[in-house]
Design a protein that fits this description.
The protein is built from 17 helices and 11 strands. The radius of gyration is 22 Å and the shape is globular. β1 and β2 form a beta hairpin. The chain is an alpha+beta fold and 463 residues long. Helices cover 34% and strands 13% of the residues. The protein binds adenosine-5'-triphosphate (ATP).
Amino acid sequence: MIKSFFSLMRPPLLSSTSFSPCPLSPYLPHRTSRAFSASTFKLMSSPMEMSPILYRPIEYVERMEYYEPGGYHPVKIGDYFLNRYRIVHKLGHGTYSTIWLAQDETSNKNVAVKVCRASFNALEIGMLAKLSAPSSDRGRAIIPSILDRFNIQGPNGDHVCLVTSPARMSVSDAKKESWISLFQLEVARAIAAQLVIAVQYIHSQRFVHGDLHQGNILFLPSCEFTAELPTEKIYKKYGEPEFEPVNRLDGQKLPTGVPEHGVVPIWLGEASENVTLLESRILLSDFGEAFSPAQEKKFESHAPLLIRPPEARFEPTKSLTSSSDIWSLACTIWDIIAQKTLFEGIMTDEDDMTCQQIGLLGPLPTEWQEKHGESIHQSKYLNRSLEGHFEKTVQKARIRARMPSLGSEEQNALLSMFRSMLSFKPENRPSAQQVLESEWMVNWALPEYEKIRNSQCYMWRWL
Ligand SMILES: Nc1ncnc2c1ncn2[C@@H]1O[C@H](COP(=O)(O)OP(=O)(O)OP(=O)(O)O)[C@@H](O)[C@H]1O
């Protein structure tokens, strides 16, 4: 059901099941790929219920099928929440929410209001509240702060709303906006450093994030945008909201609870190669898959297949742990540094993913091989290697894009970090703290982070 709906929506280029090296980015027309956001990616890997009514898909806009009892709330531009938050634009959408830019009329700041689906499990909020409690840990600054929280009632139910600071774009948005899908080296290093610091902080608080992909890494906007920019200036600079009519495929009237118009999200971002070091401050968002292993066992991973740790498949009776985050963290750091993802494919499956992992990383542990037979070893990926993939998707890609490539010492340090993080058995992977202490982090990534840590705007977040 899920797949067949997607094949209806997907243009021919993307419906291919062949493993083209970079299915989404540089070769699609400008901005087209934003319609296939991280959340779309995720939808394919999460269980979901579908409304029986189908709607004409609208580019860049959430699927109208989710406006149903228990689903999204039909937010309109101009809505006031709590007589305080005036909705001025749309920021984005995910599987569980729509996210809106609002003017906080009490503080006169621009904020993000995440309006969750009515069936949303509020556990995420509790976790985020704990992680965003004041702390002197440098990782705390990379976790979004909950500025306010309230509920609204609507035709589709009762919706939790979270107010946080607005972000500019995600790492995946910045790469999709670019023809070369690469960040400047110092920017990639700074993002990777912050991500590891954030994960180390989350693990130190005894949580596992569970969904560490590029779509959940958000760039902070300028201080000017958050603190001062009035709505008229935002519209002048970034454009007024664009509305697209919502139509059912069967031509019938829209049911209650479905908006008459979809709102195209504002684009505050820029192409990856144009992001400067000072603009590379990030927040790690989306704690919808997070859990506390001390209190809860979690056997199934809903992370996108491309970053999903192999133990979710091969050790289904063991609970996921912080080591599962380390695997996904390695895949995501790769994606930040390279032009193409570590593992590839849009409509891929677990067998293919295992074949790709063996191709890049070598044979599976013996007990996993025995469990799953030999068939997965007979694959087209066998002549690959991590080093070869690195040469192609990082070094040569950077040279082609006329960007500096990595020196051999840095390359060796980085590959050695990847190798340890991508150990098949979770118990063989380093902890986030050990990753922070790795040669690449200490000598290349953390020094770039230190440069932005002391920037004026960064300090502003603490005032
Ligand atoms: N504070 C924010 N500022 C700007 N954009 C945001 C913000 N929060 C989220 N977004 C945008 O909305 C998208 C979805 O957000 P988020 O991941 O929090 O949603 P979700 O409903 O939990 O979905 P999913 O788990 O499918 O990603 C993000 O990828 C980003 O593009």
